[in-house]
Design goal:
single chain; alpha/beta; TIM Barrel; eight-stranded mixed β-sheet; two-stranded antiparallel ribbon; 10 helices; 12 strands
């Protein structure tokens, strides 16, 4: 049975299936220490991911590039916004590579805030970090989770060039999240566009069909089952290979309210539908996030 909630109760009356596991304190401390010592950022902390305890206890983290401040103002996201972004830290690639080495990571996810202030949106910075990681961790696979690179003058050409820059560095997987269905894009993803995001993933496949592409949706923002299925069909129409479906959890009263908690059974059903549409790799569960068990097939 679907559970529908009011915004007033959304912060305190979470269903039992949304209580995330807690990792070992010693392992959590180890990851936090390595990250803080190097003054680097993780989306685990900046985005207050509900799985960070579990992931830290496994010695994994998703690195957030180019500072903790985003140039956009999405209504669902906990990442800092509304301020001028930080200058790029020239030592960040080396710092992240060292952290990957110390944590002995075999699979790394690199994401970033949106940096619309940069000509290429930060695409070349992704590549710098990838190269630094590979220099001292040649066996580590790297997944990227990028912005849409789609604003400014000559946006279409710039988007293509930015995506091309990263594709040529050959990530193990190229991830870009739609986040929600087409109807809700304007209210949820301020500054983003549904078609623009689909185009990111389409360009990847046009440039190198051997690179796996991936996208994800948050459920609970008011979408219908039919809209979700239509979105999955749109992703398959551009040969998107992998999918994550998870429950939206409101970070604070300043963010969009949760309209509905989808049950584990409903997530299971949507996962089966996704596989039937041809996705090769699906994570569909309330606590799933874009990078959750990203390297586990």
């Amino acid at each position: 049975m679907t559970q529908t909630i009011s915004s007033e109760s959304s912060l305190i009356n979470l269903p039992s299936w949304l209580r995330s596991p807690i990792g070992k304190a010693s392992e959590i401390s180890k990851v936090q220490k390595i990250v803080k010592q190097r003054q680097i950022h993780t989306i685990c902390e900046e985005g207050r991911c509900p799985n960070r305890g579990e992931c830290y206890s496994q010695g994994t983290a998703t690195f957030l590039l180019m500072g903790p401040t985003c140039t956009r103002s999405c209504a669902f996201c906990q990442v800092d916004k509304g301020h001028s972004p930080m200058a790029l830290d020239e030592d960040e690639p080396k710092k992240i590579a060292e952290a990957v080495n110390l944590l002995q990571l075999k699979y790394v996810v690199l994401t970033s805030v949106a940096r619309d202030d940069l000509t290429d949106g930060g695409a070349s910075w992704f590549v710098k970090v990838m190269n630094a990681i590979r220099l001292i961790n040649p066996q580590t696979q790297i997944e990227v989770l990028t912005p849409d690179f789609g604003t400014g003058k000559d946006a279409l050409n710039q988007q293509r060039e930015s995506v091309k820059t990263i594709v040529e560095a050959k990530p193990a997987c190229y991830n870009h999240n739609l986040e929600t269905v087409a109807r809700l894009q304007n209210s949820v993803r301020r500054g983003a566009k549904y078609d623009r995001s689909l185009r990111v993933l389409a360009i990847v496949k046009e440039l190198n069909s051997t690179i796996s592409t991936k996208s994800g949706l948050m459920l609970g923002l008011g979408e219908t089952k039919a809209e979700i299925i239509n979105t999955l069909e749109d992703l398959r129409n551009i040969n998107c290979d992998r999918l994550t479906l998870g429950q939206y959890m409101r970070p604070s009263l300043a963010h969009l309210p949760v309209e509905k908690y989808w049950t584990p059974a409903e997530f299971d059903e949507l996962g089966k539908i996704a596989y039937s549409l041809g996705f090769s790799h699906v994570r569909s569960s309330p606590l799933v996030r874009s990078s959750y068990h990203a390297g586990i097939e």
